[in-house]
Amino acid sequence: MSLATLLKGRVALVTGSTTGIGYGIIKTLSAAGATTIMHGLLPEAELRAKADALAEETGNSVTYQTANLMDAAEIRRMVGQVQDRHGKLDILVNNAGIQFVSSVQDFPEDKWDAIVQVVMNAPFHASKAALPAMLEQGWGRIVNTGSMHATVASPFKSAYNAAKHGVAGFTKTLALEVATSGITVNAVCPGYVMTELIEKQLANQAATRGIPVEKVISDVLLVDQPIKRFVRAEEIGAMVRHLCTDDAGAITGACLAVDGGWTAR
């Protein structure tokens, strides 16, 4: 079977997939033949244009959803609409994330709550909504985007570190609960990828640490990433693609590092 038909017939929803890691994932799944649903909070016309452009590039159906992941009801509605439109949802990739960098004593409580909601709580709500149909059909793939911060910590990112550690625990627990059902649940844990999320952190990190942006990249972001380059979003997509195949049916409850050797130390 060629890569272009590896996921033919599968329906995949990827949250936070208009840019960065999420876009790398949805592009890879679409190129492998899956019917994909792009999710983001862009203006609808812009989101539609992105979905249409990807569909034209890969030759496969790409639609879109705009659910606010801060709202559990909207998450349930999104999953239900995908299932109603396509008759099923085989693959759920909980990728969306937000970030804020600050010391604990100065960390705004609303920022903490928002990060925990989007990074940790939203995967719970989406997975819970998707599970009944997956259980009924006896097949499903749930992939959560973790981070090396799901296993190790960095200073000034307390909410993100806590939420990503929560994602790792949730992934393992759900994997055990559905282990005999034909559903696998895994987390892919990237190292630093140069995404818009990271780009937006650079000035914040520089100000917080009192160093130039160039030093943030070399001395903070990549200092512990042995390959000394950013991980590519397409490399994360390739790992997710494999986890969504039947060949990966025995991989479940895993937090798989794609971090350039970060956590090998």
Explain what the structure shows:
InterPro entries: 3-OHbutyrate_DH, NAD(P)-bd_dom_sf, Sc_DH/Rdtase_CS, SDR, SDR_fam. Pathway: Lipid metabolism; fatty acid biosynthesis. It catalyses: a (3R)-hydroxyacyl-[ACP] + NADP(+) = a 3-oxoacyl-[ACP] + NADPH + H(+). By secondary structure, this protein is an alpha/beta fold. The protein folds into 2 domains: 3-191 and 232-257, NAD(P)-binding Rossmann-like Domain (Rossmann fold, 3-Layer(aba) Sandwich); 193-230, no CATH class. Helix content is 47%, strand content 13%. It is built from 8 helices and 7 strands, in the order E-H-E-H-E-H-E-H-E-H-E-H-H-H-E. It has helices spanning 20-31, 44-58, 72-86, 109-137, 158-177, 196-209, 213-221, 233-243; strands at residues 11-14, 35-39, 62-65, 91-94, 140-145, 183-190, 255-258. Strands 3-2-1-4-5-6-7 form a 7-stranded parallel sheet, with helices on both faces. Helix 4 runs parallel beside helix 5 (158-177). It starts with 10 loop residues before the first strand and ends in a 7-residue tail after the last strand.
Short note summarizing the structure:
By secondary structure, this protein is an alpha/beta fold. 47% of the residues lie in helices and 13% in strands.
